[in-house]
Write a structure and sequence with these properties.
469 residues; alpha/beta; Spore Coat Polysaccharide Biosynthesis Protein SpsA, Chain A; 2 domains; 8-stranded mixed sheet; 16 strands; Glycosyltransferase; transmembrane; membrane; GlcNac transferase
């Protein structure tokens, strides 16, 4: 029998009942069951028989490492022909371009190829690094490179994949039991890659504790290490450098293109946006820890500076940063002073399906008293939608009621009714049954807010842990 996942509190700070050296156990098997509304469930995951994966890389003068990242993605993929990579490559004259570095490695790997293998599956948005205003603007540009792919992986440009990573990652996403799942974490360093380019031997990261020095400060996060993680762990916070989900998570929840120069705090805003639009954040299990971060000190890498090098060249930098942070605070209900740009708010922050107040409670962040902060490191549970209609419209086969419970109730009614109403009851039975099992070849997944209609796909319903019980 597999061990229950757990973590040892190794932080120097003891808070919220966490004691240094103590071990705490988790229960991800029941995390999709709400604490107070056990008859509700998130949408079941649906995966087409064939699917493409989009990888988005924002690269700032990081061509050599970016090219290596792409090379490991293609050369170690289970199905490289189904990958599509978009790069926002921000360079200055004389820099190595990401695509050229990749093609150099591809030529060494496949020397008999006349052309750079997989080059036609890479889209490049080449930009002047001197015009960069931070990572958010680069990720906004990345979103424009997403086409009709099923899955999206938005990540840093200096990473390394392990063999068969794409198969492992999709399988781990399926294990969330949630169509609206976003796998996200701060990936561990190259030194944690297992023997023979495999997953970490035991420990995996999970973003769950945070800090903000004052009620005006937007929180930023830290990660614990979980032992024996066999299932994705529900959390409250993303890591911007690794986000894997259905592409609709990126296309239905727009990034705020008005934000400039922001680094610290952007992840809390994005976490809130995703969660209040119906998406749920999970850190990958050991199975899904397939991407690793180059944590070499900047002084020892080929990276040439950062976007903040541009701050001194922009006379309005301080004002633009203040206005961006205040814009973020306005959407997080955090007090602010000074100028703020509130234009296009409805465009970037559509009506919520779960309230901001519920997200703050879920994440443990207090806006009234820092002493009331509660780190969400213990087991979290799925929170039902306040307004499920947008999700049910987007996913026509979904109703928020627990399909297993509905099926059991209909079966009980069927057994208790007289024979003369059998066919009527069977009709009700099959309606409930359709919520549990959608026949292969019938369910057509409709994606809204796309510029063009996507081709029809055949989806399979992914069994959840509840089905297996």
């Amino acid at each position: 029998m597999a061990q229950s996942p757990s973590f040892e509190w190794d932080r120097d700070v003891e808070k919220n009942g966490f004691i240094h050296g103590e071990r705490y156990y988790l229960d991800p098997e029941h995390q999709n069951i709400p604490l107070n509304n056990a008859n509700f469930r998130p949408p079941r995951p649906h995966v087409p028989l064939d699917y493409d994966i989009f990888i988005g890389l924002p690269s700032y003068r990081d061509g050599s490492r970016c090219g290596y990242t792409i090379w490991t993605a293609f050369s170690r993929a289970l199905n490289a022909s189904r990958l599509h990579i978009g790069v926002v490559d921000q360079i200055v004259s004389g820099d190595v371009e990401c695509i050229n570095e990749y093609c150099k490695l591809a030529k060494e790997t496949w020397p008999d190829d006349l052309e750079c293998r997989y080059k036609n599956q890479i889209s490049i948005d080449l930009r002047d690094a001197k015009e960069s205003t931070g990572p958010i603007s680069a990720r906004v540009a990345l979103h424009n490179l997403i086409k009709e792919e099923e899955f999206c992986l938005v990540m840093d440009s200096h990473m390394q994949f392990i063999p068969d990573w794409d198969g492992y990652l999709v399988e781990d996403w399926k294990k969330t039991g949630n169509e609206m799942a976003v796998l996200s974490v701060y990936p561990t360093g190259y030194e944690t890659i297992g023997p023979g380019l495999t997953q970490p031997v035991s420990q995996t990261r999970h973003n769950c504790y945070f800090a903000h020095d004052s009620l005006h400060t937007i929180p930023d996060f830290g990660a614990i290490l979980i032992d024996d993680s066999q299932q994705p762990q529900m959390g409250a916070f993303i890591g911007a450098g690794f986000q894997f989900s259905k592409c609709h998570a990126q296309t239905r929840v727009p990034l705020d293109a008005k934000l400039k120069w922001v680094f610290l705090g952007e992840e809390f805003l994005r976490s809130m946006q995703l969660w209040t639009q119906g998406y749920d954040i999970y850190s990958p299990s050991r199975l899904g820890h397939v991407v690793f971060h180059d944590e070499t000190p900047k002084s020892q890498t080929t990276r040439n500076g950062s976007y903040d090098d541009n701050e001194s060249r922009v006379a309005t930098y301080k004002t633009e940063l203040e206005m961006s942070l205040n814009r973020m605070r306005s959407q997080l209900s955090i007090p602010y002073d000074g100028p703020v740009d509130l234009s296009d708010i409805d465009k970037y922050y559509p009506p919520k399906v779960r309230s901001l107040e519920k997200y703050l409670k879920f994440s443990g962040v207090s806006l009234t008293d820092l002493s009331l902060d509660t780190w969400p490191c213990k087991q979290l549970h799925w929170v039902p939608y306040d307004n499920p209609e947008p999700i049910q419209h987007f996913l026509p086969n979904y109703k928020m009621k627990n399909p297993v419970e509905l099926l059991q109730k209909k079966a009980a009614v069927l057994n208790s009714r007289s024979d003369d109403r059998t066919w009527e009851i069977l009709s009700e039975y099959y309606q409930a049954f359709a919520l549990l099992v959608v026949a292969v070849g019938v369910s057509i997944f409709l994606v809204s807010r796309r510029k063009s209609r996507r081709t029809e796909k055949v989806y399979e319903v992914v069994p959840t842990e509840e089905d297996k019980a």
